[in-house]
């Protein structure tokens, strides 16, 4: 499939502060595209520029081959979005909220269409209940129904799991996967829950201080052949000396008085443990650390020590 969105050299400045700095990336048709960055990295600012809520200082955004600065309505007609928490009429029912927003979008409204949308997000049995009684997860799902009512090609979700309990997070994850796999939607998801992006996204970008750090396929960026393995032992120096007698010596990346770090293929970890045991090294733990969380922190926060992570 071809590209749906191309962001080229996008920059946004606020009174001398650069929130987004020469940012470029591509979202392909059918992607679930993870948009990652720490607080203040420029994620929401970028998404707001894509939706024409704020104007860029420079750069361009191309949607389906057309610059949105010259053809803004085309993108808006084909895009549904939730930026932060969705605004709704809290004293009206879920059905009435959806009806109002559907009418505002200019589409032909029918009861079947609205009930089908509510069923898709699991709210058909609660369609008469007022929104004020809904949990945050239910409000998020209703927000997605509203964003989808005009049948857009692109869905933009800014922190869709904020404030949700574990069940709400799982429901949102499943809904996003359904949008992609069953309905063929292109989805951009901004999230701080890195483990969720690792599950749902096929491509991603990490930005830091408004700039792109890395972009690519999740499977390639998280290549198990490039796993960081942390070894703690009773005597780190003795363990390092033992490793010098093996083929693993070249894989040692760093070592301290408490820990050794090797860069290796994850599938070789059992053999490494077996050899260290044979050499009578007093191993306390062996931690393969190659998750999206590790990768994200290694790129955006090199000064912060990350404790061993277990999948």
UniProtKB/TrEMBL annotation:
Molecular-function annotations in GO: ATP binding
InterPro entries registered for this protein in UniProt: AAA+_ATPase, ABC_transporter-like_ATP-bd, ABC_transporter-like_CS, P-loop_NTPase
Domain of life of the source: Bacteria
Gene3D superfamilies: P-loop containing nucleotide triphosphate hydrolases (3.40.50.300)
Pfam families recorded: ABC_tran
ABC transporter domain segment(s): 5-234
Sorted UniProt keywords: ATP-binding, Nucleotide-binding, Transport
Record-linked SMART domains: AAA (SM00382)
Homology family: Belongs to the ABC transporter superfamily.
Protein name in UniProt: ABC transporter ATP-binding protein
Species whose genome carries this gene: Ferruginibacter yonginensis
């Amino acid at each position: 499939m071809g590209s749906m969105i191309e962001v080229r050299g996008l920059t946004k400045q606020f009174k001398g502060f650069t929130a987004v700095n020469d940012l470029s990336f591509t979202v392909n048709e059918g992607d679930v595209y993870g948009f990652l960055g720490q607080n203040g990295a420029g994620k929401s600012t970028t998404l707001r520029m894509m939706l024409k809520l704020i104007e860029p200082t420079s750069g361009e955004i191309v949607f389906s081959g057309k610059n949105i600065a010259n053809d803004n309505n085309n993108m808006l007609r084909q895009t549904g979005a939730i930026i932060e928490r969705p605004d709704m009429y809290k004293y009206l029912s879920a059905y009435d909220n959806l009806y109002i927003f559907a009418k505002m979008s200019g589409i032909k409204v029918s009861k079947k269409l609205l009930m089908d949308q509510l069923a898709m997000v699991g709210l058909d049995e609660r369609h008469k209940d007022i929104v004020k009684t809904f949990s945050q997860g239910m409000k998020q799902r209703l927000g997605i129904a509203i964003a989808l009512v005009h049948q857009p090609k692109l869905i933009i979700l800014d922190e869709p799991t904020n404030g949700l309990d574990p069940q709400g997070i799982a429901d949102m994850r499943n809904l996003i996967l359904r949008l992609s796999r069953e309905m063929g939607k292109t989805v951009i998801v901004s999230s701080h829950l890195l483990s969720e992006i690792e599950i749902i996204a096929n491509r991603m970008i990490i930005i830091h201080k408004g700039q792109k750090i890395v972009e690519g396929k999740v499977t390639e960026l998280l290549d198990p052949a490039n796993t960081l393995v942390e070894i703690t032992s009773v005597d780190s120096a003795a363990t390092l000396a033992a490793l010098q007698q093996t083929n693993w010596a070249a894989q040692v990346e760093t070592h301290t008085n408490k820990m050794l770090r090797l860069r290796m293929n994850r599938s070789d970890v059992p053999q490494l443990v077996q050899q260290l045991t044979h050499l009578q090294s007093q191993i306390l733990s062996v931690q393969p650390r190659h998750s999206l969380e590790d990768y994200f922190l290694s790129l955006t926060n090199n000064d912060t020590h990350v404790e061993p992570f277990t999948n």
